[in-house]
Amino acid sequence: MTVSSKSVASSEDENLPPRILELREKIRNPDYLDFAIQRIAQVLSRKIVEGDEQRLQWGEYEQK
Contact, 26 vs 35, CB < 8 A? Predict the structure, then answer.
C-alpha cells in the first residue's frame, strides 16, 4: 500500500515567491524528477565530451 502525504500550506509558504512554490510542487512529481535528472545527465555528458574534444585539439593529452 502506498501512502501519500499532502502538505498543508503553512504561514511560511505564504512568504515564498510563487516560483519557489511552483518548483516545490514539480519536484514532488516523480515523472518531472526523472525527466530533470535525465536532462542534467545529458547536459553534463555533452560538456564532458566537448571538453575532451577540445583537449584533443589543443594536444593536452599525453602520448603514451
Answer: no
> 9-42, pLDDT tens digit by residue?
566 788 999 999 999 999 999 999 999 999 999 9
DSSP assignment string, 1-58: ------PPPPHHHHTS-HHHHHHHHHTT-HHHHHHHHHHHHHHHHHHHHHHHHHHHHT
Q: What angle do CA 57, 59, 60 make, to 5 degrees?
A: 115
Q: Which pLDDT belongs to residue 21?
A: 96
| Neighbouring C-beta atoms of residue 26, cutoff 10 Å | 13
Would you state the cell numbers that stand for residue 15, as one nine-digit string?
512568504
The whole-angstrom separation of Cα 16 and Cα 14 is: 6
Q: Could you say which DSSP state residue 59 is in?
A: T
